[in-house]
Specification:
The protein has 316 residues and is of the alpha+beta class. The chain contains 9 helices and 14 strands. A hairpin with a 2-residue loop joins strand 2 and strand 3.
Length: 316
């Protein structure tokens, strides 16, 4: 058994670069969004400017390509015909591609308008998101679904989620906020975004983790992701009879504190300690845990899926 040692408002399709007062109601100030051809309810208030959107809106029309918004259907439909991203790719650089999913890295300073609109839209579904207009210090990673056959040529790509990441984090945060849009949730797509954040940590040669504190939903999602990642790392170290937390953290590019909390939640730590103070964890118990919970240990992000030019840039 291995040892684990515990030691710009542009109406009628609008955006704004100005901060606006917090919505006065605790409930959503936008009740529903029309996102392309999909209508769904919101969860939380966002900071759309009242002079454009109003205080309480039944429906807000949001472009599924550039995230510009409008409260009237006629200008919304007019914008969709002319949207500059309609027949092309999202802004930013393509950094990853695997099967029907691609990921683009968008610089918040270079594509400020897009990132502001995206952040305002995301706030409708995130209770604790706090950056909406000062986006220059963040990169945004867009998860894009590429339908094999779109409704029209060039319209197959759809942004379905994203995460943001500070360009410089003194706390080694590899992710600031994360969201898979509601129509695409419960499909296991969040782990692709989480997996990418740790692959970026690997490319940066720096262990990291998400910005804390996590929301309740964030805790649930990350715990599930971490458990599979840690189990895969432990079972993959076939030539080691003793493992330290640092060994596992290095293999996973995770913070040691996240490794420890994950092992405890998995209940694979023994009660006995070695003379050096280390706690015993059984690989057999880890295997049993994987089988009992029917955990898929396949990595959600394939290292070979990264674009070669992006890897070259990272190495430089």
């Amino acid at each position: 058994m291995p040892n684990i040692s515990l030691a710009a408002a542009q109406s009628p399709i609008a955006t704004s670069s100005k901060s606006t007062p917090s919505p006065k109601s605790a409930g959503p100030n936008v009740q529903q969004v029309v996102f392309g051809d999909i209508v769904f309810r919101t969860w939380y208030p966002s900071f759309y400017p009242e002079e454009i959107v109003g205080r309480d809106v039944d429906r807000l029309y949001v472009c599924q390509w550039c995230f510009k918004y409008c409260r009237e259907v006629v200008p919304f439909l007019a914008h969709r015909k002319l949207c500059h991203t309609r027949n092309g790719s999202p802004p930013g650089q393509l950094i990853y591609s695997k099967e029907v999913y691609t990921i683009y890295e968008v610089d918040g300073e270079e594509d400020q308008l897009f990132c502001q609109n995206l952040s305002l839209f995301a706030k409708l579904f995130l209770d604790n998101k706090s950056v909406f207009f000062d986006v220059a210090s963040f990169n945004y990673y867009l998860l894009v679904y590429n339908a094999p056959h779109g409704p029209e040529p060039g319209q197959q790509a759809q942004v379905i989620g994203f995460f943001s990441k500070e360009k410089m984090s003194w706390d080694n945060n590899n992710l600031a906020c994360i969201l898979v849009f509601p129509p695409w949730q419960r499909k296991g797509l969040g782990k692709i975004l989480m997996g990418l954040s740790y692959e970026l940590s690997r490319l940066d040669d720096r262990v990291g983790g998400p910005e804390k504190p996590l929301s309740e939903l964030g805790k649930i999602g990350y715990l599930k992701f971490w458990q599979a990642r840690v189990a895969n790392a432990i079972l993959g170290m076939k030539n080691k009879t003793t493992l330290s937390v640092e060994d596992i953290a290095a293999a996973c590019w995770m913070l040691s504190e996240d490794v420890v909390s994950t092992l405890r939640e998995m209940d694979v730590l023994g009660t006995k300690r070695k003379n050096d103070g280390s706690i015993v964890v059984s690989k057999a118990r880890v295997r049993e845990w994987v089988t009992l919970n029917k955990v898929d240990l396949t990595a959600p992000v394939d290292e070979d899926g990264f674009a070669e030019d992006y890897l070259v840039e990272e190495e430089e």
